[in-house]
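User: Some background: our group keeps a shared notebook of sequences we're curious about, and every so often someone picks one and asks for a predicted structure to add to the entry. Today it's my turn. The entry only has the sequence so far, pasted here. Could you supply the structure so I can complete it?
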Amino acid sequence: MLERTVEIALLLDSYENLLHERTRQVLKEYFSYDLSLNEIAERHSISKQAVSDQVKRGEEKLHSFEEALGLVGKKLAHGRAIQEALLQIEKFEREKNLESLSKAKELLKEVSDGL
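Assistant: Of course. Here's the predicted structure to add to the notebook entry:
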């Protein structure tokens, strides 16, 4: 569940403004605030089944947005490239290895070009 929660939180950060207000609120309450389906149903005066359906549809929408736009995937790839570049810079500082500095520069250029 934690992996799913993190995934949906990342998707919500990028695409929440593309969702209907109610769907956005239900997804935040369920995934970010860890409220149960019953608690959300009570807060919105709807059935538990309606909340469950809204969570499922909301997740599907978020995944379709990511499939079409790929913003989260790009953010994660950029983060990994930056981390690798930092490691290469540290290696250069330790070993004075120009190859690592060149690799770090290449990685940062890839990130910059992808923005």
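Suggested note for the entry: The chain has two domains: 2-69, 73-114. The two ends are 31 Å apart (CA to CA).
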